[in-house]
Design goal:
Layout (H helix, E strand, L loop, with lengths): L7 H11 L3 H52 L4 H46 L10 H18 L3 E8 L2 H8 L1 H17 L6 E6 L2 E7 L3 H17 L2 E2 L6 E3 L3 E7 L6 H17 L5 E2 L4 H11 L1
Parallel strand pairs: 6-7
Antiparallel strand pairs: 1-3, 1-6, 2-3, 4-5
Helix pairs in contact: 2-3, 5-6
Length: 300
């Protein structure tokens, strides 16, 4: 870079291109899902095989006892029976080894399944804040807009942005900036629940999808988040130096009958831009009168 400095935006672009490639992330998750399905089938087969092996071992043990009793009554066939008993014992021992190995394999498969679930979860999360990432949000908004339309249920979208984050980052450094983003994600997570989907959209921008939520309830939630963020006082973790307060601007939109994921996002993002133009640290769910007038003048 000409300036010799890497901004948060540059870091996000680098991460998105080299780490969370959209085409690769979806393919990996699909492969993991298919592989997990195969593991479940394999585990069922292993458990079934283990039960069969145990049952057959018990049957062989029973036959061995019966053969020994028969040999006592008919000494002439004793030698033959001893051979059969020896084979029976060998088969039983092999079955016991098989049962042990099957049990070990079943444990290994369960552990592998857990690891795959963990990897899949990581692929859906923003590594800095722990909330959902941009790719997960893109998939979720497409799915929820379609579901909301089919069920004729409300769907609201909140777009939120940390005010003056670049200035804060430049003044206090990227590590403190990361601390701010984690704090914002923590506060927003504490105020979302159930089917709500919170994602870091990029940089200092976050998004919340609210299925089954009216625009009025979404506004109340957004303002509750705004006030919670505003009330926090930041300190450096090591020195406890007071860094002051931060604020957020939030824009909202509710799904309309003709909305696509793109149009719903564009309207919420436009309201976020209105909030920032209007002075920041506020919630906007519809264009204010003065902004609407300005927009009309620009288009005439």
């Amino acid at each position: 870079l000409a300036e010799g400095a890497i901004t948060q935006s540059h870091a996000d672009d680098f991460y998105s291109f080299h780490i969370v490639r959209a085409d690769l992330a979806k393919d990996v998750i699909d492969i993991v899902a298919r592989f997990e399905s195969e593991i479940v089938s394999l585990t069922d087969l292993i458990e079934s095989s283990g039960e069969c092996a145990q049952e057959r071992g018990e049957q062989l043990q029973k036959f061995s006892s019966q053969l020994r009793q028969s040999a006592e009554q008919y000494p002439g066939v004793g030698a033959i029976l001893e051979g059969v008993i020896a084979v029976t014992k060998s088969v039983r021992e092999e079955n016991q080894k098989l049962e042990k190995r099957l049990a070990e394999t079943s444990t290994e498969v369960a552990s592998l399944r857990t690891n795959i679930e963990h990897i899949q979860q990581e692929a859906m999360q923003d590594p800095l804040t722990g909330v959902k990432n941009r790719k997960t949000f893109d998939a979720a908004i497409a799915r929820l807009v379609r579901a909301s339309h089919d069920a004729q249920e409300p769907l609201a979208l909140i777009m939120a942005d940390v005010d003056h984050f670049k200035s804060f980052n430049d003044k206090w450094g990227h590590q403190t900036g990361d601390q701010v983003l984690r704090l914002v994600a923590e506060v927003m997570s504490a105020n979302t629940k159930g089917q709500d989907i919170l994602a870091r959209y990029g940089g200092e921008e976050f998004a919340i999808l609210l299925p089954g939520t009216s625009i009025e309830n979404a506004v109340m939630l957004a303002d509750r988040i705004r006030r919670a963020i505003e009330s926090r006082r930041l300190k450096k973790r090591r020195t406890f130096e007071v860094l002051g307060a931060i604020s957020m601007s939030l824009g909202l939109a509710a799904r309309g009958p003709a909305d696509t994921p793109e149009s719903l996002f564009d309207r919420a993002d436009a309201r976020l831009y209105d909030a920032k133009r209007n002075g920041r640290n506020q919630v906007v769910s519809a264009p204010s009168a003065n902004i609407a007038a300005e927009d009309r003048q620009l288009t005439t």
